[in-house]
Amino acid sequence: MSEDLPISGVWEERWHPLREEWIVVAAHRQDRPWIGATVSGPQISPPDYVESCYLCPGNQRVSGTTNPHYTRTYVFDNDHPCVGPNAPREPAIPSSPYRVRPAQGLARVLCYSPRHNLTMAEMPPDLISEIIEVWQQQTYDLGQRAEVNHVLCFENKGEVVGVSNPHPHGQIYATNFVFKTIEQELQASQRYHNETGRTLFAEIISAEQATNLRILYEDEFTIAFVPYFARYAYEVYVAPKRSVAHIHALRPQEIASLARALQQITIRFDNLWQMSFPYVMALHQAPTDGGDYRPYHFFLAFHPPLRRSTVLKYLAGPEIGGGNFISDTSPEAKAAELLAVPTIHYRESRGE
Ligand SMILES: [Zn+2]
After folding, report:
1. Coil, helix or strand for 285?
2. Under a CB-based contact definition with an 8 Å cutoff, are residues 200 and 18 in contact?
3. Are 339 and 7 in contact (CB under 8 A)?
4. Rounded distance from Cα 157 to ligand 1 centre (Å)
5. Gap between the Cα atoms of 320 and 325, Å rounded
6. DSSP labels for 1-34?
7. What's the pLDDT at 13?
8. Of the listed 169, 246, 248, 297, which one is catalytic?
9. Which among 284, 279, 287, 237 is positioned nearest to 262, based on CA atoms?
């Protein structure tokens, strides 16, 4: 459908202002033949409760802990943490220029709901608001800890991004370091603010509003769009309109609005190919080390790995070897595709 639009053939380089790097948009070759591996398409939805699931209420986890019979969200310390209080205190000192330090911090798991099959796309906004409130509380609480300098909340969804358990859940990494992407965005935002006196992300929102080619959701408090400089085909940014550095600065009306936006975006994703749509989603927020991060603007970014229903975007020479993305699709065409689908979830439409 959108392949017929002239905007689908874009062939140019676009500047990513937050990463300060070029994205090569080579959408003219979107239809190049593909004979490589494909991923399986639509799956059967799992049941409400699964006895062998380590996230379902009342079940025992590998650590021996039994999950409570939780009825809303549920947060616990990851049984296989990447950073944690039990990491060796005195790692072996390597020779220069190598450096080492303890893997300090905390890693947590956030179950979105007791229901094994209830993804964000099928949640009513008030349940999504509860997840947002957990992100707020966790960011605030963990950010208070002396050893924590940044809180990364994220969700890996779907087998193609390595998630074997479909029970809807996210993760929280509270680390002693600031993740590279955030560091990069901070530098870009601070530099932009020094040079212009304006907030970079607020200007990105204004630019999206001015062209109105890629906006998927907008109300008084929140906006969602496929950014002009998208690296993944169906990449979507969801952001409050008011510049805040951390999610816990959002007010009740902004939370409710963000929940509606997240619901609409995840429904559009699922409706695109009538399947549970995989993605990596991360909250981009400023460090929690007490610094002045006013030029930074909190947002959520969805990075879906699929470029067609059964074809993955592989990161290869340019992305892994070179560090810049080649995008095979035009952000305008992908936004048009997402806008063309209904905002009632397909399973609800089918009466499932
Ligand atoms: Zn489960």
Report:
1. coil
2. yes
3. no
4. 14
5. 9
6. -GGGSGGGG-EEEEEETTTTEEEEEEGGGTTS--
7. 95
8. 169
9. 237
Which tokens in the block code for residue 256?
């409710």
User: What one-character-per-residue DSSP string does 292-316 give?
Assistant: --TT---EEEEE--EEETTEE----
Number of other CB atoms surrounding residue 238 within 10 Å: 22
3-state SS assignment for residue 183: helix
**Closest CA relative to residue 247, chosen from 119, 134, 128, 111:** 134
Q: What is the DSSP letter of 147?
A: T
**What residues have CB less than 8 Å from 82, skipping those under 6 apart?**
103, 107, 173
Q: Phi first, then psi: give them for residue 147, nearest 5 degrees.
A: -85, -5
Q: Is the dihedral of CA 305, 74, 82, 282 positive or negative?
A: positive
CA–CA distance from 73 to each of 92, 114, 264 (Å)? Answer: 39, 7, 20
Give me ligand 1 centre to Cα 262, in Å: 22
Distance from C-alpha of 159 to C-alpha of 162, rounded to nearest angstrom: 5
What is the CA(42)–ligand 1 centre distance, in A? 20
Give the C-alpha distances (Å, rounded to integers) separating 55 from 81, 219, 287.
16, 34, 29
How would you write the pLDDT of the chain (352 residues) with one tens digit per residue? 344 445 668 899 999 999 999 999 998 876 676 666 777 765 677 899 999 999 999 999 989 999 999 999 999 999 999 999 999 999 999 999 999 999 999 999 999 999 999 999 999 999 999 999 999 999 999 999 999 999 999 999 999 998 879 999 999 999 999 999 999 999 999 999 999 999 999 999 999 999 999 999 999 999 999 999 999 999 999 999 999 999 999 999 999 999 999 999 999 999 999 999 999 999 999 999 999 999 999 999 999 999 888 888 889 999 999 999 999 999 999 999 999 999 999 999 988 8
Tokens representing residue 130 in the block:
């509860």
Active site residue 248: no
Angstrom distance (rounded) from CA 55 to CA 68: 10
Distance from the alpha carbon of residue 213 to the mean position of ligand 1, in angstroms: 39
82 CA from centroid of ligand 1 (Å): 22
Q: Whole-angstrom Cα distance, residue 175 to residue 107?
A: 8
